[in-house]
Write a structure and sequence with these properties.
By secondary structure, this protein is of the alpha/beta class. Helices cover 23% and strands 30% of the residues. The chain has one domain (16-154): Rossmann fold, CATH 3.40.50. It is globular and about 40 Å long.
């Protein structure tokens, strides 16, 4: 899969923290790790999996949080991440809106949220509406991966929920 356009969505800065919330380790996780390594940043992965497993050696620098139950949220400190990426988790988690709320809290001001789901599984309009309702601004559907629907929005300083 060609991830060049996908990677161009991000502009990592030195020391950034990206959080990937997913159920699969794949090329996207590997490319995000490369982006973070290039700026001395950190990739954090909240991995929903039945049995905890080790990350592949190419992701040894990433911080892993293993979650065995799709009803449980991931853990993250307030204002501790610069981007949160939800990949293939929206339709699996019992309360995706709760995850979006946690993402708002853990994101720094003017940080981004990305929701991506295999093509045809995401109601793009409903996802954009959910992000607006949870105080994310300018949600946009972006066509950068042929196999994925992707919506990206921004947490703006001094807007919305105030954190």
């Amino acid at each position: 899969m060609d991830l060049k356009q996908f990677c161009e969505l991000f502009n990592p800065l030195p020391g950034n923290h990206y959080l990937l919330v997913t159920d699969t380790i794949d090329d996207i996780a590997l490319r995000l790790q490369e982006l973070m390594e290039a700026v001395d940043g950190e990739l954090r992965i909240a991995l929903y999996e039945e049995k905890p497993s080790a990350l592949p050696p190419s992701l040894n620098a990433a911080k892993l949080q293993s979650i065995q139950n799709y009803a449980q949220p991931f853990r993250a400190l307030p204002r501790d991440n610069d981007i949160v990426i939800f990949k293939d988790i929206q339709n699996l988690h019992k309360n995706f809106e709760q995850l979006v709320k946690i993402a708002y809290t853990t994101l720094a001001n003017t940080a981004d949220i990305v929701v991506m789901q295999k093509k045809g599984l995401m109601d793009v309009a409903a996802t954009k509406e959910l992000l607006e309702r949870r105080e994310f601004r300018a949600p946009n559907a972006i066509e950068v991966l042929p196999d994925y629907d992707l919506v990206m929005a921004k947490k703006m300083h001094m807007w919305g929920a105030g954190l």
